[in-house]
Amino acid sequence: MAHDVLANCYIQEGRYEEAIFEINKQSALGRGPILPKLNLVFVYTGLGKRAEAISTVKELVEISKKEPIALDVAQAYSALGESDKAFEWIEKAFSVGHRNGSWTTMKTGPVWDNLRSDPRFASVLRRIGLAP
Length: 132
What we know:
single chain, Serine Threonine Protein Phosphatase 5, Tetratricopeptide repeat
């Protein structure tokens, strides 16, 4: 868990090499592929490595065929600035009853910043009870 938090802090600060180090620790500890891959999308996006970010999102999409990670995929598309795809995956998360802490981060979490100005985002916040 500490490596997850550190990786996220480093990503937010733009300290991508340190974030990659922590992401590698996540993977080495057997945390599963989802969070490390999602964090790599954020790193690649921050570094301007769009092709690598898109490739990693495709890996998450493949994982989503076996695991309920639609909201994680939505976060990845949000990081890429692909609003329509992000909202498509948010709808998928609603349709499968996706439950994880990511819903609660939608109001303030920076990963959703690319979507905030879109009117659909306010609708999502209302649907999850984070806005009137």
